[in-house]
Structure formats: C-alpha cells, structure tokens
Amino acid sequence: MLAGFITCFIVGLICILMGLLVWKKKQLSLIAGYNEETFKGDKEKLAKAVGFFTIITGLLTIILPFGLEFISEMFGLLFGAIIVIGTAALLIYVNKLNKPSDI
Question: Cα separation of 8 and 65, whole Å?
Fold first, then answer.
C-alpha cells in the first residue's frame, strides 16, 4: 500500500516538473510528436495547453491513491475518465492550433 502512495507521488512530481518545463521554459521538444518544421500554429498557446494539462495530470496522480483509499474505487474511474476526456480535448485543441488562420 505504501509503495503505491510513493509511486504515485514520484510519478506525479515528474509530471508536474515536465509540465513546468513545457509551459514556463518552452521546451517543446518534450512533447511527443512535436516537430518544429511542421507545426504552423502558436507555440506559446501550445506550450501553455500541454504544460497545464500535464501539471493537472500530475496533481491528479498524486491525489489518486488517497482517493482510492479514503473515498472509494469510483475515484479511480473518475480519474481515468478525466484523463481520457482531457486528452481528447487537448488533441482537438492542439490540432486547431496547428491550422494556420486564413483571417
């Protein structure tokens, strides 16, 4: 049980660190599939969106074992749903950012 708490805490901290590197330091090379030559959109918005989502994912990962232990197993389902829906929304947003505006 303690190993799960420690593992989630370490993974959550790594996610938060990576999110801060992407968002604040603009290290876009940490984003999987990012290519400087093919991305035509706003890199500031991309860094903010991906970094923010990664930080939220890290915070949820840190909270996950406490929710499973003290609330119920439904917390795990809620965690999974938030991650899946958030990832889908992030993918749609990033694809919209990559389209050059004609206006």
Answer: 7
